[in-house]
Amino acid sequence: MDGEVLRYYERGEEDRRLREGNGRLELWRTQDVLRRVLPAPPARVVDVGGGPGVHAEWLAADGHEVELVDPVPLHVERAAGIPGVTARLGDARDLRLPDASADAVLLLWPLYHLVERADRVRALREAARVVRPGGVVAAATIGRHAALHDMLRTRRYQGERAVVDASVATGVLRPAPGMGFTTAYLHEADEPPREFADAGLPGARSYGLEGTAWLFGNLGELLDEDRATLLEALRAVESVPSLIGVSGHVVTVAARPA
């Protein structure tokens, strides 16, 4: 794993990011989408690059059998302590699991940090190999303009303009110190389905998670006061082509052909 990316995740902040503040919207919308597309529990779910187990925890609580595979030792240590979850070190591009051994494979972090397209397709191809025919593969990506929108929202664009403009032009974000993230690939809205298809997973559908809501100045109030209405509104427009690319995060889903 890239040393800079590893050091970022060894800070141990990813769990808190999704459970507090505005990051809750990403977590709740991921749950909302996955609970509709995954097989009914109990199913065998492989959570690839599952971090400290934020998603593995609720998946296990829902009744799924969850195996988490992650390249960060701290993440594996924390996830291993979650009831109903097994965790081990591993690489999304080489899962070392039997063919057709899972009902669903999730890649909710790996594609962020595989900046080469060949590596992303390889990871998706591994997921397609491990999932059973008819099983589900779901992967999360960051929107191509997420850094631009975030820096504008937080009034930091002028200070980070060179980095942000490069991410828009090339898709590769190489943040300066203090920017709040690490090296990542930012997808155009139409890229994930094409990468899925090249990995043997045709017919993928993308779901924009946050829509425009993550750019609202009063998002925290909405999440605290009217979460249900906000989630319903975002669900209604989650696959509108002209809005998918506005989301900070997108989940793309396909079934392995029978």
TrEMBL record:
One MF annotation (Gene Ontology) recorded for this entry: methyltransferase activity
Keyword Transferase: yes
Every Methyltransferase type domain range: 46-138
GO biological process terms held by the UniProt record: methylation
InterPro entries recorded: Methyltransf_11 (IPR013216), SAM-dependent_MTases_sf (IPR029063)
Pfam families with a match to the protein in the record: Methyltransf_11
Methyltransferase among keywords: yes
SUPFAM superfamilies the record matches: S-adenosyl-L-methionine-dependent methyltransferases (SSF53335)
Keywords annotated in UniProt: Methyltransferase, Transferase
UniProt-recorded name of the protein: Class I SAM-dependent methyltransferase
Organism of this sequence: Actinomadura violacea
